Amino acid sequence: MSIAIDVQLKLLQTLPLIVQNHPTDLRDSLIFGVVQTCAVLLSSTHGVVVSTASATLQQLVTSLFERLKHENKAQLQDSAKVKLDLGTHHVIVGPLASDAFKVC
């Protein structure tokens, strides 16, 4: 099903605002869904949608890693930490680091 170009562009314009204004609400599958939406729109046949999706994805990833940098500097309570399974071993990270690992 194809969504009209103007709707796709409005969606791409809205995503960074949502991430910026609701950073603590976007976790786990929601942040993955935001990134996945941009990735799907990268395959559009319309150049303007592809370039906007690319810019939006870059902005979202940059924002995610800026938040991650701030999380790493903050002292998190043990209840906020997440055990991340890396196959051969485990690491304890903040919730945003866990989300970034899942997205990447």
Helix/strand layout:
Layout: H1 5-21, H2 29-41, H3 47-73, E1 82-85, E2 90-93, H4 95-103
Antiparallel strand pairs: 1-2
Helix pairs in contact: 1-2, 1-3, 2-3
Brief rundown of the structure:
With 104 residues, the protein is mainly α. Helices cover 63% and strands 8% of the residues.
Molecular structure report:
The protein is mainly alpha-helical and 104 residues long. It has one domain. 63% of the residues lie in helices and 8% in strands. The chain contains four helices and two strands, in the order H-H-H-E-E-H. It has a two-stranded antiparallel sheet with strand order 1-2. Strand 1 (82-85) and strand 2 form a beta hairpin. The longest helix is centred in the middle third of the chain and has 27 residues, at 47-73. The model has no long low-confidence stretch (mean pLDDT 83).
